[in-house]
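Colleagues,

Please find the record for the two-part complex below.
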Amino acid sequence: MLSAVWQTLTRWYHQWGSPRYFFQYSGVLLRWLWPLAIVATMTGLVWGLAFAPADYQQGDSYRIIFIHVPAASAALLGYVSMGVAGLVGLVWRMKMADIMIKAIAPFGAILAAVALITGAIWGKPTWGTYWVWDARLTSMLLMLFLYLGVIALINAIPDPRQAGRAASLLSVVGVINVVIVKYSVQWWQSLHQGSTLKVVGETAMPAEMLSPLLISMLGIYLLFACTVLVRARTEIMRRERKSQWLKEALQ
Amino acid sequence: MSFVATVKRELLLACRRPAEIINPLFFFVMVVAMFPLGVSPKAELLSVIAPGVIWVAALLAVLLSVEGLFRADHESGALEQLLVAPTNLYLPALAKILAHWLLTGLPLVLVGPLLGYMLHLPVSASSTLLLALLLGTPTLTAIGAIGVSLTVGLRSGGILLALLVLPLYVPVLVFGAGVVSYAANGLPVMGLLAILAALLLASLTLAPAAVAAGLRISSGG
């Protein structure tokens, strides 16, 4: 029983690692994923921005949380998934792995930037300043830098295969490092000054606020997945433009 | 054997071109000297920013010097010979990192306390500064070598290397500058020095493997 499950999983794993299989089935997957992503994002955002109750302290300004938190967590998730893809690429030398890194990096960088910008906009009414060197803000800034490094490396190497493998290695190194960076920044924070500002209130979030937040997080994750799949498909088309199977699939 | 041979070869090559040892050191001293000119010569201000200034300058000096780690070997073809040789690249990579640190990092370590004195860092903190640089700069060289292995042979190497490597340098900067500030304020430093030593051991054991993989990737193998 267990070995049968395992066999199915490894078969899937290797099938999805082949550009041809990926191209074929990601198209089917996207037909379901796109509507789901749009419905979830719209529901979460409209509910959060228009119908969720106002915060008793921050009033309506807290509503940016429905964009800020999903963007920040998706940026983190994207970076970790780049590291996983990098490891897969280095160990199994799968073509799809470095295509995925190339697909994830730009949208992840944009999400990190969105998290920083919405955080700054949120910071002004609540903290009185657009920017503080808070541990979370600083580690998100460093995450943006790490994303930009991966993108810069991919752009600098002309050969796409080589660029993908170089980005794989950098992503793996980066994921190991991002944990240390996170702790060092927290420690640095405690050395310089205690945070006088609490990023999130101590009281647990009521359900009327939490449910739209969770739905918009799900929406952004799905949107992220859709964008990555579309970008990966474009990259497959670019790399396999001379293959017969691609011509047949597109007809 | 190959380890010792590589270290010897690197040291000999550097002795023939001493400018490559001296230049990063000059760079380090000059960058530090810019800060009193740009910020303020007041002792109380300088002593506060001294740990950060020295560490940032050391970090940039290592970054700039490490860029040439594989350049000569790449241009002469020695790197390709190394890659096709039937040996594991781990030890040669470690040897390159160590030799490079001996040539460019160690001088920075030795000059560090002098610059600390010039920036009015309390004399009681200078031994900590020396130890922190001794533990931190090899880590910087090792992490930098990973970036270099990926960018070797690329035209836009220098600035790209900085983009890749600087975010990875953050922990060393934070703990390195932090421990010196602790020492200047009379706080205990052993814990933070231990963290710096842990970072050093982790990077020295893991980085050569990453460098070896990076060299294979950027040679197209």
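Chain B has ten helices and no strands.

Comments are welcome before we finalize the supplementary table.
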